[in-house]
Specification:
By secondary structure, this protein is an all-alpha fold. The chain has one domain. Helices cover 78% and strands 0% of the residues. It is built from seven helices and no strands. Helix 1 packs antiparallel against helix 7, helix 2 packs antiparallel against helix 3 and helix 3 runs antiparallel to helix 4. The chain is elongated and about 55 Å long. The mean pLDDT is 87.
Length: 165
């Protein structure tokens, strides 16, 4: 349980960075992968091997989506790193939870693109950090920029971790 509690802040950092900069730090993906691989090895070498196989298959499928422009590279790395710490049967649940969270995120951004007043989308240097972030995000939303899908991935991963891989 302690391992899972340590991984949740990493997911929060990944989601926050995706919202603020539309990038996911490589360090978060690497630490998640190492922790997940260590956990699976603790269960047994066969568990690690099966997780490596399922994570590699997931990586291949996500790489195809990346090549088509449907996902960012950080999203691919983060999802694959999380899958490395999961039992192969759990990866499907992770994908479903992530897709559902991504759908809600997409609908929220679509609705906000219609509802946000134009003046909110003008960043001001006199605003505080959160207000500036809100204005920048409003600007991105109004221009239908890319979604911070790391938020959906972090949600799906957190639900799996809280459920107990």
């Amino acid at each position: 349980m302690l391992l899972f509690a340590c991984l949740l802040p990493l997911l929060a950092v990944a989601a926050w960075r995706d919202v603020t900069t539309r990038t996911i730090p490589d360090a978060a993906s690497v630490l998640l992968a190492l922790a997940g691989a260590g956990f699976r090895l603790w269960i047994g070498p066969q568990a690690l091997l099966l997780s490596l196989l399922s994570a590699a298959l997931l990586f291949g499928g996500l790489l195809f989506l990346f090549a088509r422009g449907a996902l960012g590279g950080g999203d691919v790395k983060l999802m694959s790193a999380l899958a490395l710490g999961m039992a192969p049967a759990t990866v499907w649940d992770f994908l479903v939870l992530t897709a559902a969270a991504g759908g809600v995120l997409g609908l929220a951004y679509l609705a906000l693109s219609w509802l946000l007043p134009a003046h909110l989308a003008r960043p001001s240097t006199s605003d505080g950090l959160l207000a500036r972030l809100g204005r920048v995000e409003a600007w991105r939303i109004r221009r239908r920029g890319p979604l911070p899908y790391g938020v959906a991935i972090a949600f799906g991963g957190a639900m799996i971790l809280l459920r107990g891989v």
